[in-house]
Amino acid sequence: MDDRTEEQKLAEYERRAPGWVVRCLRCGFTEPWGKHGYRIRGRGNFCTITRCSRCSRYCCHRVEKRKEQ
Ligand SMILES: [Zn+2]
Q: How far is the CA of 62 from the centre of ligand 1 (A)?
């Protein structure tokens, strides 16, 4: 059972891959890359095929560093 809150999960994703997001090229939705459990190799900015949690399609997602705020 996973009884963590969404906020706790997001914090863990951030620890795994700080500042990295994965963006769906189909609908533009972004979510933390750490959710997928991978470490970033090199400088990132590559594409990967994964399922989007908003449009629920398997499609190309771009992994990129979140812009500094
Ligand atoms: Zn999408």
A: 11
- Confidence at 1, pLDDT banded by 50, 70, 90: low
Query: Could you identify the residue written with the tokens 């933390």?
Result: 32
Residue 1 covered by a domain: no
Confidence of residue 46 (pLDDT cuts 50, 70, 90): confident
Average pLDDT over residues 20-24: 92
Please give the residue range of the domain that contains residue 19: 6-65
Residue type, 41: R
The answer to whether the predicted template modeling score (pTM) of the entire model surpasses 0.90 is no
Q: Report the separation in Å between the CA atom of 50 and the middle of ligand 1, taken as the mean of its atom positions.
A: 10
Q: Is 42 part of a structural domain of the chain?
A: yes
Q: How far is the CA of 59 from the centre of ligand 1 (A)?
A: 8
Element (H, E) at 23: strand 20-24
